[in-house]
Write a structure and sequence with these properties.
Helix content: 25-40%
Structural class: alpha/beta
Radius of gyration: 18 Å
Number of domains: 1
Largest sheet: 8 strands, mixed
CATH superfamily: Alpha/Beta hydrolase fold, catalytic domain
């Protein structure tokens, strides 16, 4: 039986010069022509799992109902990895710090060499290596680029926003693992909020979480952390162009929240983009 392939999509493997690791890009061509200035782009972390869902939603909503601009969707993942191997790889790319020994003991579900604290390198890979590769194959608008991440990917989105808020114009952080390393990511929040009024291109930020992501007594406080962060950002008086939105998706679990969140996040990132 012939292996299936995703329609109108390019697949490209490359080895990063920054960290020496291999990556796989899946790039979905929109069903319509590019606007003047190029297509908006949505970069999807954990692309091995989420690329197809985002690409289908973005392409069909643009082509069928003209609800969104035609947008290039890029899944960033790993070549030749099984599911548990991809889980091991993402610990390196998506975490900003080394966890405690107790936390490492919880990661036996992943296979292969498990390393951590590569988020700074991964942000450089996205901006200096992935972005040019996408621009080589399709006309894209660098002023209209969004980044999505879930769980550790949501942590990475927040960490990168706080460090380099001009790297993307829209940031989609779903179920962010704010709890990581005693909420290390929040150390960058004050610097971001103080710099926000002076940013030449204020970002858009969406924070979401499923209502069932925090079992009673859970030390991770997935829902509480997201809601508390959202309350602080909702109170910010940012400059013209700054937009913030948040949502608790009722009845959704950590694994299931991605799919009901796709359309609200696409609307937030791409409408009027």
């Amino acid at each position: 039986m012939k292996a299936a392939s995703y329609p109108l999509a390019r697949e490209q493997d490359f080895t990063s010069r920054i960290n020496g690791k291999a990556y796989r890009l899946r790039i979905a061509t929109p069903y319509g022509p590019p606007p003047e200035g190029g297509y908006p782009v949505l970069y999807v972390l954990d692309g091995d799992g989420y690329f197809g869902s985002f690409a289908d939603a973005a392409r069909l909503r643009a082509a069928g109902g003209l609800e969104l601009p035609h947008t290039v969707v890029v899944g960033v993942g790993y070549p030749g990895e099984d599911f548990t191997g991809a889980l091991g790889r993402r610990f390196l790319d998506l975490t900003p710090t080394e966890p405690s020994a107790a936390e490492k003991a919880n990661h036996t579900f992943a296979s292969g060499e498990i390393r951590y604290a590569g988020a700074d390198d991964f942000l450089e890979i996205l901006t200096r290596e992935v972005r040019p590769r996408v621009a080589e194959v399709l006309p894209v608008d660098p002023a209209r680029e969004a980044l999505f991440g879930h769980s550790l990917g949501g942590l990475f989105v927040l960490y990168s926003l706080f460090r380099r808020p001009d790297a993307f114009c829209a940031w989609l952080s779903l179920s962010p693992s704010i709890w990581w390393d005693e909420r290390f990511v929040l150390r960058g929040e004050a610097g971001f909020t103080s710099a926000l009024p002076g940013l030449a291109r204020p970002p858009r930020l969406f924070v979401g979480v499923g209502s069932l992501e925090q079992p009673e007594g859970s030390p991770a406080r997935m829902v509480d952390n997201a809601v508390e962060l959202s309350a602080r950002f909702s109170a910010l008086a940012g400059p013209t162009g700054w937009r913030f939105a948040s949502r608790v998706f009722e009845g959704e679990t950590h694994a299931g929240v991605v799919w009901p969140a796709i359309n609200p996040m696409l609307d937030f990132a791409l409408k009027d983009a």
